[in-house]
Amino acid sequence: MNVNNLNRIVLEIKNNFQHDFSGHDWYHIERVYTNAMKIQEIEGGNVEIICYLAILHDISDHKLNGGKLNNGGSEAEKIMKKLNLDHTLIARVCPLIDEISFKGSGVSDKNSCLESKIVQDADRLDAIGAIGIARAFAYGGNNDRPMFVPELKAQDHDSFEVYANSKSHTINHFYEKLLLIADRMHTSTGKKMAKERHDFMVLFLDQFYKEWGTPQSL
Ligand code: ADP
Ligand code: NI
User: Fold this and answer.
1) 140 CA to middle of ligand 1, Å?
2) Residue 194: exposed, middle, or buried by beta-carbon count in 10 A (0-12, 13-18, 19+)?
3) What is the pLDDT of residues 76-120, one digit of tens each?
4) Whose CA is nearest to atom 10 of ligand 1?
5) What is the CA(205)–ligand 2 centre distance, in A?
6) Which residues contact 19 (CB under 8 A, 6 or more apart)?
7) pLDDT at residue number 206
């Protein structure tokens, strides 16, 4: 792998994400990359594709780009071409970018290869556990969402459009996505890594409801 090219793309991405306060900053990308490499060591897959896919996976997420769905592949292609990266690499990485993001509780995942499954697993690991909890509340605060509204019950989505347009409180996000992730991991290494993080979220929710208690009428 050409390390010089990798450094150039890392610089570009660090620059793009430096003002993010929604849990999608450079450190998220870096953790996804690290987790993807840990999974790759055991599961195999092309290191270069996994590496570029991890670094570029949130380049144009619908949550960050004003609502455009499936726009990441074309944005990644623009950046990779601007940096004169290898055409074969561009052709292999870009079609995978829009496979990575979660599309809704009732929408099945469509991953065309092992590399896409590994990066999706790595991205999802960072959405659960202690870091996942912190990111969910950071996202909620950044997007004007209430922490919890007990009267609003959990919602499911049967299309990406419905999921992308839903606006609920952050505790609902645990039921529409975060608690479903452990069962939706693709690789057995990812599944093992998800277990501890999943259990921690269950513990967190128990404690959250315990502290919230039953509201007294005012
Ligand atoms: P994906 O593309 O699969 O959603 P991301 O890397 O974009 O993965 O990160 C998703 C993270 O964004 C979630 O784990 C959560 O922290 C945050 N997020 C997305 N939607 C919501 C929401 N409705 N409420 C709270 N957090 C959210
Ligand atoms: Ni991500």
Assistant:
1) 9
2) buried
3) 999 999 999 999 999 999 999 999 999 888 899 999 999 999 999
4) 127
5) 23
6) none
7) 96
